[in-house]
Automatic annotation (TrEMBL):
Family statement drawn from the similarity comment of this UniProt entry: Belongs to the NusA family.
InterPro entries: DNA_repair_Rad51/TF_NusA_a-hlx (IPR010995), KH_dom-like_a/b (IPR015946), KH_NusA_2nd (IPR058582), KH_sf_prok-type (IPR009019), NA-bd_OB-fold (IPR012340), NusA_N_sf (IPR036555), S1_domain (IPR003029), TF_NusA (IPR010213)
Organism from which the protein derives: Pedobacter insulae
rRNA-binding as UniProt keyword: no
Protein's name according to its UniProt entry: Transcription termination/antitermination protein NusA
Gene Ontology CC terms, in alphabetical order: cytosol
Length: 411
């Protein structure tokens, strides 16, 4: 039997990822049955046998032997005179079984069959990849960076499947080059033009949750539950946790001895600050914990409008707000309350150490101001812009920005 690239093709099909051998064999059988139907009008009297080990193919056709002149369907029956030339021992009523060779289909039909096989198996493989990853949405996947473009990065998993990580799904501090190993969470799987498009993300809250499950056995075992995660990727994250076992401190378990567990997560997230807090149904206490590391003096809640007014000592206001407002914004997302912070009543005249503004003012600027004796907010505000320009190496625009930050503290 002439293989005409058929056996070579089968070897290729066996190597296709995500498709088991019985499925490939069934595809092969269907393709050849289609060829039989085109040639003979039916395949119901044909047997197609594919050897799963080496791809050898056998096709057998069975026809009933009829008396001469009584054959009504040449595809299912054969007359005695004709069959006697092929097998002298045949008699009327016998089943004549013959082997169909590939050559009988013609070279063009075989090449067409090969193309059909390739397209069908490719289609099957795409479907299998889609199903596989659709079921894995929310799981962490590790891959190798294959190509980096301006707006997205192509990552290959350990089976060579393509995963796309758009720039918008990367942590701002992420920098990848070809060959780098990268971890991300599968966030979305779609079929686009009959091809699976798998989107992975490093900014999704689920990514942080999976990292905690990897690093903290108590979470993986269900002893500690992550109630909610909110993130400003690359900047700060807040994780509310709860333990169903009174003997387990959920925060301590997540942080680990001397921060051993959380350090690995922080490194993976490019030094993103992670606040782990105890979840509670007491909203006042929950907001207080959510605004950590700031220490709150008092809280007024309006449950109807989901609004919280938080009062703090002057030196705690900047801590509550955080650099770029991230701390208060995340606390609001975590608790579901809109939070406003106020300096504690009766302390409007209290001065604030210049170091308390380190989240909003660069340290080298603070050092310049301290060098001329301005170590508190009011000592800076007591001087004019011109005088500060003369006495420091700071630009006028920088000084105006500093004054604006300091004045907002007392408004």
């Amino acid at each position: 039997m002439s293989n005409i690239n058929l056996i070579d093709s089968f070897q290729e099909f066996k190597e296709f990822k995500n498709i088991d051998r019985p499925t490939v064999i069934s595809v092969l059988e269907e393709v050849f049955r289609s060829m039989l139907r085109k040639k003979y009008g039916t395949d119901e009297n044909c047997d197609v046998i594919v050897n799963p080990d080496n791809g050898d193919l056998e096709i057998w056709r069975t026809r009933k032997v009829m008396e001469d002149g009584f054959s009504e369907d040449d595809d299912l029956e054969i007359e005695l005179a004709e069959v006697k030339q092929l097998d002298p021992d045949m008699e009327v009523g016998d089943d004549y079984i013959e082997q169909i060779t590939l050559e009988s289909f013609g070279r063009r039909a075989i090449l067409a069959a090969r193309q059909t096989l390739v397209s069908k198996v490719l289609e099957l493989e795409k479907d299998e990849i889609f199903k596989k990853y659709k079921d894995r949405v929310g799981e962490i996947v590790t891959g190798e960076v294959y190509q980096v473009w301006k707006k997205e990065t192509l990552v290959l998993d350990d089976e060579g499947n393509e995963l796309m990580m758009p720039k918008t799904e990367q942590i701002p501090a992420d920098y990848f080059k070809k060959g780098d190993s990268v971890r991300a969470v599968i966030s979305k799987v779609d079929m686009v033009n009959a091809t699976p498009k798998i989107i992975i993300s490093r900014i999704a809250p689920e990514f942080l949750q999976r990292l905690f499950e990897i690093e903290v056995p108590e979470i993986f075992d269900g002893l500690i539950t992550i109630k909610k995660i909110v993130r400003e990727p690359g900047e700060r994250a807040k994780v509310a946790v709860e333990s169903y076992d009174d003997r387990i401190d959920p925060v301590g378990a997540c942080v680990g001895m001397k921060g051993s567990r959380i350090h690995g997560i922080v490194r993976e997230l490019k030094n993103e600050n992670i606040d782990v807090i105890n979840f509670t149904n007491n909203i006042s206490l929950y907001i207080q914990r959510a605004l950590s590391p700031a220490k709150i003096t008092s809280i007024k809640l309006d449950d109807a409008t989901k609004h919280a007014s938080v009062y703090l000592k002057p030196d705690q206001v900047s801590l509550a707000i955080g650099r770029g407002g991230h701390n208060i914004k995340l606390a609001g997302k975590l608790t579901g309350y809109e939070i406003d912070v106020y300096r504690e009543a009766g302390e409007e005249d209290e001065d604030v150490d210049i170091e308390e503004f380190s989240d909003e003012i660069d340290s080298w600027i603070i050092d310049e101001l301290k060098a001329i004796g301005c170590d508190t907010a009011k000592s800076v505000l007591a001087l004019s812009v011109d005088e500060l320009v003369k006495r420091t190496d700071l630009e006028e625009e920088t000084i105006k920005e500093v004054i604006s930050i300091l004045q907002s503290e007392f408004e």
